[in-house]
Specification:
CATH superfamily of the largest domain: P-loop containing nucleotide triphosphate hydrolases
CATH class of the largest domain: Alpha Beta
Largest sheet: 8 strands, mixed
Shape: globular
Strand content: 15-25%
Distance between the termini: 37 Å
Order of helices and strands: EEEHEEHEHHHHHEHEEEHHEE
Number of strands: 12
């Protein structure tokens, strides 16, 4: 099979993830669909509460079973449907073929175990390594993520590392078994700007070296251009725009995407203040009818509040898809909400 016709590594098809609140089920993801090729990076972008992390947790099978469920849709990974897979089968995939870097390393690392022990844990579980073999492999990973004096720091505890170094440890843990797919959930949010740039460069370097696909989750479009191949903008549990990264920055079409871009501070322009998007993401239990962004949109029309448009390609760019009846009238066909 040629590269051009190779099946996607990951494919989400009409994914609906629901949470139970107030005695009723409410959709946190509403028909999310996208495909991810091998060696490709997709950025999921949007405000907090838009469904980015829920998408990643749905893929990983880490949703709390007591009050959440995948109500519809498929998650196909390497030709295998993950929806309905047993917990035992998912454990064999997690940390092995699919890994995740979580948002806050201080709460994700075990404070009573050394960083070296935690990096080696996946190697012991998935690769059967023990003793010095596991230690050597873990030490090599810490060197790869550029932990200074890794051999001396191997037996240190997480609280003895800075925020940036802890994030590098998390990256080493995620990459221990050379996964095919890496999910990075806002891995630079808690870091200062200089360390952010270092972590982004490190992720790009390791992705290229390992030949893996990556989903990079962030609320900041400013970091996307340097790391992503494609971008999917999410709002209220749905993808509202998706395009190649250069196309999205050159021609943002959905009003929400435009608003997100305006919130990025510019050093080359004078500004009296930071731009903001009025209002907030609606809660799961009180989603507005029609277009979910309409209550916050300056371009809204009466029909926007009654009809939820479909995500459809723009006439001049088939790979640029938008969910907006004002900016992209061809997408205005109603869909089931």
């Amino acid at each position: 099979m040629s590269a051009a016709t190779e099946a996607p590594l990951l494919e989400l098809d009409g994914l609906v993830t629901e949470f139970r609140t107030g005695g009723a089920w409410h959709a946190a993801l509403r028909g999310v669909s996208f495909a991810l090729a091998r060696n490709e990076t997709l950025a999921l972008v949007g405000e907090s509460g838009c469904g980015k992390s829920v998408t990643a947790l749905s893929i990983m099978g880490l949703l709390p079973p007591a009050n959440s469920r995948i109500a519809a849709g498929r998650i196909r990974f390497a030709g295998r449907d993950l929806v309905g897979l047993s917990e035992e089968a998912m454990r064999k995939l997690r940390g092995n073929e699919i890994s995740m870097i979580f948002q806050e390393p201080m709460t994700s690392l075990n404070p009573v175990l050394t960083v070296g022990f935690q990096v080696a844990e996946s190697l012991r579980y998935h690769r059967g390594m023990e003793g010095q073999a596991a230690r050597r492999a873990a030490l090599e990973l810490l060197d790869q993520v550029k932990i200074p004096a890794a051999a001396q720091r191997f037996d240190d505890y997480p609280h003895q590392f800075s925020g940036g170094m802890r994030q590098r440890v998390m990256i080493a843990m995620a990459l221990a078994c050379r996964p095919k797919l890496l999910l990075a959930d806002e891995p630079t949010t808690a870091l200062d700007v200089t360390i952010q740039a270092q972590v982004l460069a490190l992720l790009a370097e390791l992705k290229s070296a390992y030949g893996m696909a990556m989903i990079f989750i962030t609320h900041n479009l400013g970091v996307v251009a340097s790391i992503a191949d494609r971008v999917a903008v999410m709002y209220a549990g749905a993808i509202v725009e998706t395009a190649a990264v250069d196309e999205l920055f050159a021609r943002p079409t959905h009003p929400y995407t435009e608003a997100l871009l305006r919130t990025i501070p510019r050093v080359d322009e004078d500004s009296a203040g930071l731009a903001a998007i009025p209002g907030q993401v609606p809660p799961l239990s009180a989603m507005p009818p029609g277009c979910r962004f309409a209550p916050r949109c300056a371009l809204r029309e009466a029909e926007c509040e009654a009809t939820d448009p479909a995500l459809a390609p723009l006439p001049a760019a088939a790979d640029h898809r938008v969910r907006c009846r004002v900016r992209a009238p061809a997408t205005a066909a109603p869909r089931h909400a």
